[in-house]
Amino acid sequence: MNELDALEENLWAQWAQFGKPADCAFHVDDEVRRLDTPIASLPYNGVFKFTPHNGAENKIDAIIAHYDRRAVEHLWLVHPSSRPADLGGLLEQRGFAAAERFAGMAAEPGGVDFSRRAPSDVAISRIAPDEEDIVVEMVANRWSVPTDAIPHLLSFFRANRVGAPDAPMQGWLARIDGRAVAKGFTYRYQNTVGLYGVATQPEARGKGIGTALCVRALQESCDAHTDLFVLHSSPMAHALYKDLGFRDVASFVLYARSGERF
Q1: H or E stretch at 67
Q2: Which of 20, 22, 77, 115 is spaced 20 to 30 A from 239 at the CA atom?
Q3: Burial class (CB within 10 angstroms; exposed 0-12, middle 13-18, buried 19+) of 59
């Protein structure tokens, strides 16, 4: 699998995990991969792959109508292999705007600088199954998830068995004096490990905690079968990942109608 395929396939496989709970679904066919969940706010409904063979505009309209009937915000990911080539323009004609641009990046395990260490007062550990409430609270705060939707976030965590040794999705927490200040996840798909959801609390930023957490997560996720690390970086984190040894591969754009940024 080449780097571009690895970036797309790992991303799609990771988001497919949100379709595991009984009241959710990740729909897959050769043209579209899209997510349905009960959470009405972004980013928990949307289209992650769109490569129609024909009739693109009718299919776009049908998908938008589906989410409108459900009264949920939804996103569209414009990815490197998206079709048609003017998908972004077609979405803009329908009231969508580019909410966030991400750099798809990749690195071989041997090319990552694993020497970065957390400050002495920071403890980084793998998320355990009984720490779900801590993680869900951080995720809910990051995405402004309504209180009544938090049980659905818990169902994602439990359905994916985060913390179980053999689960493809793993998570890490950084703590200062026992208080969680940063988190991140990895997802293994075939021989590729993707890094997702890295976030540091505002009061703990600028201390190298997020960098150290990324290094720890990648290092602990790497084994003899790992050929490639991939991630999708925001502009703010791009220099950090370049410094760790990642290189740019392709751009990804998230479109939404709500005007929210991701």
Answers
A1: helix 56-70
A2: 77
A3: middle
